[in-house]
Amino acid sequence: MGASDFANLPHIGESVRRKEDYRFLTGAGQYTDDIVLANMSHCYFVRSPHAHAKVRSVNKTAALAAPGVIGILDGQDVAADKINGLPCGWLITSTDGQPMKEPAHPILALDTVRYVGDHVAMVVAETLEQARNAAELVEVDYEPLGAVVDVRDAQAAGAPASHEIAPDNHCYKWAIGDKGEVDKAFVGAAHVTKLDLVNNRLAPNPMEPRAAIGHYNRAGDDYTLYVANQNPHVERLLLTAFVMGLPEHKVRVIAPDVGGGFGAKIFLYAEDVCLTWASKKLNRPIKWTCDRSEAFLCDAHGRDHVSHAELAMDKDGKFLAFRVHTDANMGAYLSTFAPAVPTILYATLLAGQYKTPQVYVEVDAWFTNTSPVDAYRGAGRPEATYLLERIVSRAAWEMGLSQDEIRRRNFITEFPYQTPVALQYDTGDFNACMDKSQELADVAGLEARKAESKSKGLLRGVGYSSYIEACGLAPSNVAGALGARAGLFECGEVRVHPTGSVTVFTGSHSHGQGHETTFAQVVAARLGLTPDQVDIVHGDTGRVPFGMGTYGSRSISVGGAAIMRALDKIEAKAKKIAAHLMEASDTDIDFAGGEFKVKGTDKMVTFGQVALTAYVPHNYPLDKLEPGLNETAFYDPTNFTFPAGTYICEVEIDPATGVVRVDRFTAVDDFGTIINPMVVEGQVHGGVVQGIGQALMEHCVYDRETGQLVTGSYMDYTMPRADDFPNIVIGHVCTPCTTNPLGTKGCGEAGAIGSPPAVINAVLDALAPLGVKDIDMPASPNRVWQAIQNAKA
Amino acid sequence: MQVQLKVNGKAVAIDAAPNTLLVQALRDHLKLTGTHVGCDTGQCGACTVLMNGKAVKSCNMLLAQAADSEVKTIEGMAEADGTMHPMQAAFKECHGLQCGFCTPGMVMSAMDLCERQPNANEQQVREGLEGNICRCTGYQNIVKSVLQGAAAMKS
Lengths: 793, 155
Description:
heterodimer, A: 793 residues, alpha+beta, five-stranded mixed sheet, 21 helices, 28% helix, B: 155 residues, 5 strands
């Protein structure tokens, strides 16, 4: 079945209300912290208060005597049990052919702590309060060492180094594109626009803090790990094969209801390993639930790039070449996918929507004494879009062109299009997105609104951002060639029951995206059922075939495609059963709307009759046809998908206070085929608000001298709230993806990718009359006010 | 220490240490796990419940402070037969939730808001939800849900 046939099926494009909502709305959801096991104990982690220190000793004596304490384990215990450190899932090779520096990442510090919050010991007690109280009694003798937290400080000569194998803090140098050709193109350019910028460090902040329960069962010598995680099979693979040396069939990982992920729950964390390991050692189920303040310290952070970019143009504003250097802060250790973020997921997106003939990107990755940085909503794509869309608007202003005109002059208009940085875009219509966004944003009325703002003493500006991203990470062999240590396929198993209802087992994981509904729509559409007749099972390695989980907006394009493959097999077998029932040849059977018909006749059997026949195989040609109707498929995509769009933001700024108010926000996206518009729009709303959050308020701040995390709670890390935003106006353009059978492209991250540059470009447009030319995120009132004062001076 | 109160219409007596928070009493003692803990500074609102009809953050209150009061949690919203309250139904209809973790707190705050400002407009709803953080929805559909839920409760 092709994408165009698929889009026309019933239920596709229908805003079916979510099946999962009832349990969430009645308090019947079950998140990890809601689970209580018999004889369960509780864990509290002793964490480093220093950014960098030698651990001279850990004295557990007093703590072990505290009430309720069951056990206290530290790095020495880990070493004694030969538990490995956390593996990194992506290998980057430096431009000199050397592999990246990959320091050991112990689950509990052995002799050195390398960031505030680094794991030193785990205290297990009968109650959480007892564990917390006992943790206070663990005496750790630290010898503080010099620390760096800023990526610019990390590369200074003589900067303190965290790892012996990286004495200069350098993890890797990586590059893509033809430097010689780029340099040559710059020589003949009519104009060069330059830009230095910082992409601010963020905390992902899913509302459910991370939590896990390790449960070793002596009877079967097996383990169950309940964990708030986005990809339970990958978690199990890393945990068993790389860290604990256990056979996979002895470990079941269950990710039950998960309260948001945004990347923070993709990774294998030290806590997950500690709980699994200790549950055997102490022979008790052990629960750990992260505090929010703890989450700020120990969840992988996002972004944190410092970049310099140069864009060469001819006299008409046509792009000739783009040159970028980025320094990426990796934090103290390499988290699961960290090395891929500033390279494969970032540099390859720097062609954007433009036919720039030459692009060259160089990336240096550095270690610092901060929480490890890894993928956060968009992962690399937001960093690329922010850099590119900022410099494109700046180029427009320098060339005396409008922000939309410079984009239109450079848009790619023919597909497929091979960029100079590795990707091949299969399809898109960038002008259509621009047209629709300008129409919905009422750009025509901007001047009148500007005048009205001016009359109130306020400044109004408009910002554009035309993003493209790469979703559905693919294909496995390409990813492998680029350094991935895992495949990137997805699995789907479709089990048809005797009475015709269906259970689907998917390797994708839903943590708010609504898979239980949208995946059911896909299956119902294909089989002629209603979505209520289809249940989706995910998040449990004990039930689902090996899958890769949910991140990078891959669920429907890769996971849905795997289910479609399984449905192809179901249909093929069902046709044979139908042919048997109607005494026809299976090549003469048509299937549509839940009915099997013999071509050219009025003979018909329903899907339910076929299902029953498969399981009640009387008078069944058992020599030719197995009973049952149950098929599994694995799907490895042939290319990424490329969602794209244009976002327009209008802000109003009070120059007296520096407060930026987002007055209007318009998002027009091309996600290809849309299965459930309601769910898709919800994803865009959430993504846009996270992106505006980055642009205006969110920021992880480490003290540059002490390495302390200053923004360690919701008291000082500003989260977007309901009264910070207007309603977002949404529009769609549809050019179906050509490389998967659904035509879908992915929508989960677009909002967070497209919105930051739109907001900052709007801020700069508003501040331009005051002479402000640059500002870094977050454009907080203080920063905006300061920029205005600096421009005056 | 024993504390008596009514939770979701049922009289309960909870034996707990004096430093027990209301949210711990609900989650750990009564196994009402619909009320969630999302932060440790009283900022996120995931733990919001109604006490004597008013929204309170149950992670910021001692159980003892709830003595003799009537507490309502998300588990007490639907009818005995499972039919959702109009406010819950509005959240489903308007797609006012994604991961569902902040949702119980949002619904309870919405109930309080409807009580205080039954005719609240969109801006007032946004301001009224200022104490609850949602990371998924961008709030737009939550606001829509509250407006629709409020209208349904009046009719």
